[in-house]
Amino acid sequence: MTTHTPHSATHAKKPAQSGGSLLDVQHLHKAFGGNQAVNDVSFNLQAGELLALIGPNGAGKSTTFNLVNGQLAPDSGNMTLDGVSLLGRKPHELWRMGVSRTFQIAQTFGSLTVAENVQMALLSADGKSLSPWQRATHYRRADALALLEQVQLDAQADRPCSALAYGDVKRLELAMALANEPRLLLMDEPTAGMAPDERHALMALTRSLVNQRGVAVLFTEHSMDVVFEHADRVLVMARGALIAQGTPAQVQADAQVQSVYFGSGKTFGALHETQALHANTLTLREQP
Ligand code: ADP
Ligand code: MG
């Protein structure tokens, strides 16, 4: 699990190919009662690719995300990682296979140092656990510091996690998610609650890790400026279905995407003006 698929310098805008995908998702369906939350969703993801999943509230993004990370089981469909089926596997099995997600740091970890949080993730990656009264202070400390250096947090290694600024907590989450040397990293709204500068800094950092490690990233995101600036490709969902996929430029130009987000007569150009006015993230809502 320590081997990484090498990335090429030209990976960034490489179109997805049907063969040789790292993650291949085919015809996923998931209903809650009569509500088809995910309806025939198919996509793939290559090593070294940053793929955004966007859509209005209730579109089915989180459900899709939770199907891929094993928290939910699909009603039908197929998912493979490097050709190996992911069906029926629990999150911890997926974690062993190299599927990681950004941790939401538990409150109890706030009293630990920044390094100890990463050390806890390393313990978990090694299939070990601690008794409640033990601390991970000495466990693979050099590896923890190396991970912190990658997210530019090494200078803060010995501070309590609770003392970190919000943007630094998100970096720490990223370092923890890298503890099992993932091939696929899943990030659900990684920049939620961040200021615009911090959002771009976090995604630029994510991009550099993608390039260095050849890891593939699937992330959901509300902030359109983040998506269009940083994603290689974008999947757009509405009412459970995938309505478009392509490069940021392609989906921005897509009439169906524009109509779902803005109704007729509005464009992403108008969105940018609105964003400039409010200087903040827009939470997108589906048009009636
Ligand atoms: P998004 O993340 O795009 O906002 P979700 O995947 O959370 O959308 O939700 C898609 C649809 O599935 C919504 O109609 C939502 O109400 C429904 N849904 C999501 N999770 C559940 C659940 N656990 N039980 C019942 N309905 C759910
Ligand atoms: Mg959601």
Task: Report what the structure shows.
The chain has 2 domains: 18-98 and 182-281, P-loop containing nucleotide triphosphate hydrolases (Rossmann fold), CATH 3.40.50; 104-181, no CATH class. The protein is 34% helix and 20% strand. It contains 10 helices and 10 strands. It has helices spanning 61-68, 91-96, 114-125, 141-150, 166-177, 196-213, 224-230, 248-252, 255-262, 268-278; strands at 23-32, 35-45, 50-54, 76-81, 84-85, 99-101, 184-188, 216-220, 233-238, 241-246. The protein has a 6-stranded mixed β-sheet with strand order 6-7-8-3-9-10, with helices on both faces. It has a 4-stranded antiparallel β-sheet with strand order 2-1-4-5, with helices on one face. Helix 4 crosses helix 5 and helix 5 packs parallel to helix 6. Residues 1-18 and 273-288 have low confidence and may be disordered. Bound molecules: adenosine-5'-diphosphate (ADP) and magnesium ion. The site of magnesium ion (MG) has 2 residues, from helix 1.
